Structure prediction request, 124 residues.
Amino acid sequence: QVQLAESGGGSVQPGGSLGLSCTASGYTERDYCLAWFRQAPGKEREGVAAIFIGGGSTYYADSVTGRFTISQDNAKNTLQMTSLKAEDTAMYYCAAEYGPCGGFWYLPARWVYWGQGTQVTVSS
Prediction:
């Protein structure tokens, strides 16, 4: 059973930076995809970024391209967020599944394993 645990959320002013971490355990295969999603109150959960651990390919939502960076170091995944905006405020979740990320990585329904989430608030 894959287990995911997020950390690093908090409050930051617009234009600031914040890093989120997702620590994973329980993988039984080397090739898997890990992604970050976010959900703001009253809105649907949306894909933010993903990385295929087997090959290193990364994927980003248009809204965060150039501002967010996803990376992996052993069992720890990091989402580095810069130039944060008020609209980035949300609960952030990491998710994982075996196999490549694929073109529909941003769809929440396809993901099997989820963390509990960590809150990010961008406000002045």
The chain has no helices and eleven strands. The chain has a mean pLDDT of 94.
